[in-house]
Amino acid sequence: MSANEHVSAADIRTILDKQRAAFLASEPWSAEQRIELIGRAIALLAENEQAIVDALTADFGHRNAMFSRGSEVLSPLASLKQTQAELAKWMQPEARKTEAGEAWVQYQPLGVVGIVTAWNVPGNMVFKGLAGALAAGNRVMIKPSEFNPHTSALIAKLIASVYAEDEVAVITGGPEIGQAFCSMPFDHLLFTGATSIGKHVLRAAAENLVPVTLELGGKSPTIISRSADFQAAASKIVVGKLLNAGQLCVAPDYVFVPEESVEAFIAIAKAVVAKMFPTLKDNPEYTSVINTRHYERLLGYLDEAHEAGVELTELNPAGEDLSQAHNKIVPTLLRNPGDHLKVMQDEIFGPLLPIKPYKTIDEVLAFINARPRPLGLYWFGSDAAEEALVLKRTTSGGVTLNGVMSHAGIESLPFGGVGASGMGNYHGIDGFRTFSHAKAVFRAG
């Protein structure tokens, strides 16, 4: 049933009840059992690397195979192995100070955890969520995105091949199934997706008082300080923006550039793209936009900006016509687009990069703080006072200094958003704690 496209809400509830009954029927899994369960996921990834890469290529049309291997196989493999190595330590009771008797925190599994993943890096999300949920000793139900039919079907098949349905189950299907899934009385729900959908998820979960971790993305600002190594900063930003054609929740969304350096930024961006992607149209390393809906959405941003008189710089080294390529969009710089334009209102999730010229760091901070809190924030520079100011005066899910997106890949750091970009976090010990109940225990003296 777990790989069946035609499941109903009743079927989902049946699996949930089956998992909860199995959870309650026995003692919590020991560290050894949890290590073994995680080991099965490690074997799946190691043995099916090419099948996973191929499925993602089929879903996107064109997708950089090296990126797929890194993001969907190697990164979650590292997370699963690190979780295996550390979970016994995480499980230990944590002593707390008391004047009399004994006090400690005991970490207990919650029961059944639901995980809903997005389409942009599905393998990464499924297996990193699974790592934390299994480390905490939970049964797990997973709903991958319908926008990745090949990848979702493969994940369902692989999971079903090594886990019993009362251990880990995958539910596939469209929006109605997703809605039914999020309405189930899980013991915790992890959702990754758009802020607009996150509101519906939170509303559905509230009916059953299900605690929710939301990873919602957002418009992650990037700042190049006047103290930065400008060449290195601009290069890293452009490379980061074009990974997965900008379809990453922590992608740099727009960049603040000192007003006197805008032309230099554009020149560096042209050189970086010419080196990375000398051609775009038939280049399998240049990833397509996931589907026609998102492709047309991005073209709509460009059309609106063009009509508003925004200067657009296409980064198209071979001057190709991409209109007949499969959902491929030319990387494009937008020079100082107005704040009312959709490209400055919505999370871009594509290879478009607005450039915002600035005079002072104070105006940059004011601009960022006047908007919803982003998932990531990136600052390039060597001025310690300015770095401290940016860290103190802005609030974001995470920060990478002198780089982009890297904080999301550090397993020892919590990953999640704040405000409109989400709530709660996971990865590493923070994932273990998110999917555990921290039970206060006191023994009287």
Molecular structure report:
With 445 residues, the chain is of the alpha/beta class. It has two domains: 235 residues, 3-Layer(aba) Sandwich (Aldehyde Dehydrogenase, Chain A, domain 1), CATH 3.40.605; 190 residues, Aldehyde Dehydrogenase, Chain A, domain 2 (3-Layer(aba) Sandwich). Helix content is 44%, strand content 18%. The protein is built from 15 helices and 16 strands. The strands form three sheets. It has a seven-stranded mixed beta sheet with strand order 10-11-12-9-8-13-14, with helices on both faces. Helix 3 packs across helix 4, helix 5 crosses helix 15 and helix 9 crosses helix 10. The radius of gyration is 23 Å and the shape is globular. The termini are far apart. The model has no long low-confidence stretch (mean pLDDT 95).
Would you summarize the structure shown here?
One of its GO terms (cellular component) is cytoplasm. This protein is α/β, with parallel strands linked by helices and 445 residues long. The chain has helices at 9-25, 31-47, 49-60, 65-90, 122-135, 149-162, 175-182, 195-206, 230-242, 262-276, 292-307, 342-345, 361-369, 384-393, 428-434, and strands spanning 94-96, 102-109, 112-116, 139-143, 168-170, 188-192, 212-215, 220-224, 252-258, 311-314, 332-335, 352-358, 376-380, 398-401, 422-423, 436-443.
